[in-house]
Amino acid sequence: MYKHMPMNREETKRVKLIIEYDGSNYHGFQVQKNAHTIQAELEKAIIRLTGEKVSLIAAGRTDAGVHALGQVVAFDTASRIPPERWKYALNSVLPFDIRVRESTYVDRDFHPRFHAQSKIYHYIIYRQEKGAVFYRRYAWVNTDPLDIEEMKRAAGYIIGTHDFRSFCSSGSPVKNFTRTVKRLEITDRFPFLLLKIEADGFLYNMVRIITGTLAEIGKGDYPAQAMKDILKARDRKRAGATAPPQGLYLIEVKY
């Protein structure tokens, strides 16, 4: 479709894409052996357009079933496709559930993850049985009676700089568990409950574990102030269950 020039680092450009995707049919973002992933589809589309085999860098590695409206990726290319045309070129060959929203050139040293100042995630809970069949792929269908005010009080303990070891799934390779949560808002628009969380970074399953813990507090399993003790414990076993992936959305990455 576009003439491909041999890769030469001195001639390559770094392209930044902002993408959205429905993660329902994928085993997460990152390439995995014998698995259907977002990254694999994007890299396959680039090969189809230019013949280049690239390795995408992403702002975050969303898990299976997790969605994105503002995932950021970057890759190097020697292609002559103009920066603003990458959006249209890729959308012409990508699956219907992955769309490029913006495409631009950036500095060669730009890194979507390391240069991010903060990330914003939303988590959606759908709170009634009617309509569950339609929302089950895009929200956590949870019909438990929830004390929203108690959840909001508990959320207040999360804001700030803390060791979030209690909210990180086992098996994470990170050594530093300290993160700064800039805001955590809970909005009740029945039948939807929306959690908005912004932080300078997130641990593995951090948003989903925080959500699961807040839901258990909302059910009355323990009081709001227990969140403070859970944080101090630095023990995953003290926090609540991990909320399911389909309610989670990567909304925006700020630079």
UniProtKB/TrEMBL annotation:
It is an enzyme of class 5 (isomerase). The keyword Manganese does not apply. GO terms for molecular function: RNA binding; tRNA pseudouridine(38-40) synthase activity. GO terms for biological process: tRNA pseudouridine synthesis. Substrate binds at residue 121. Homodimer. This is tRNA pseudouridine synthase A.
